[in-house]
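Sequence in, structure out. First:
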Amino acid sequence: MAKVIVWNLMTLDGFFEGKEKWDLSFHNDAWGDELSALSSEFGRKAGLLVFGRVTYEGMKAYWTTTQEEEGETKAFMNALPKLVASRSLTGSDWNNTTVTADIAGEIISRKAASEKDIYVFGSAELTEALLAAGLVDEIMLAVAPVTIGQGTPLFKTGTEKRRFALLAARPLENGTVILHYAVKAGPAGV
């Protein structure tokens, strides 16, 4: 059975994007050869990429038009099967993309049908919904050594307490730290 793994970059003060939508300038503080190698590893391990609608629109716009040399990352972003959670979209013209209004049902079905991991990229709203439904197995975060003071938090306020078990913590040469957690099962606080 596949695992559902949430992956995101965030600032030390907990934001996954800046004050404006798609303000990801802090990614430059985290990016380097080590994170590039990790991205390639995700591409080799992934059986499915999952996005919320907003993240999907930004990813599609970037990865289908970028002229930058992105190597393996660009190749896997365009080639791998993708699943988009949306109540407003009905289809996609991005290669290997399926849109669904029933993301929980699709995740349950695809987890059971695959051995390769399912990666959720970005998508704070979707991450919250999948955590609430008990469908996330692991969370991996790249914490950039920078604060930005304001932006969109990765984890939503007002949600129930959740517990995580540290699987690994890996500092990178540029000061970024990769934190890898398993989501603990059971009621909050247990």
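Second:
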Amino acid sequence: MDTRQDELRRDLDATLQARKELGKEYEDELVDSFMKRLDARLDARVERSVAQRMDDHEPGPYRERHQRSRRQGWTKRSGSGLAVVSMAFGIPLTAIASNPTNGGFAGLLVCWAGIVGVNFAAAFGERRSREDRRPRSDWD
């Protein structure tokens, strides 16, 4: 802790010495530079403190599950959500597309082909991202 304060004191002394040498016209730039270095040190200190506190806590099943679900992303958690949304939109779209003035049976086929295509693309994208996360070996 003492060395960090010494470093900070040296930086402040250097900034003040540079101000004396350069004059008041560079004062704003010198202060901004010092404040950026101070902010970076504070950020690093806060990050270390938070990491240390997180390490002190024993990871429980809730924390592990929460971290795992955050890593999986939106597609993994919402796989059944897309199916529900597709069905919710599919019902009114079926009524609209199957109307004889809007295309009849051909409109119905086009409508459901689009819905199936969207679901297929989402499932294929999820599978592909899962394969990308899988560790590769020399045998693959």
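Remark: The chain has five helices and no strands.
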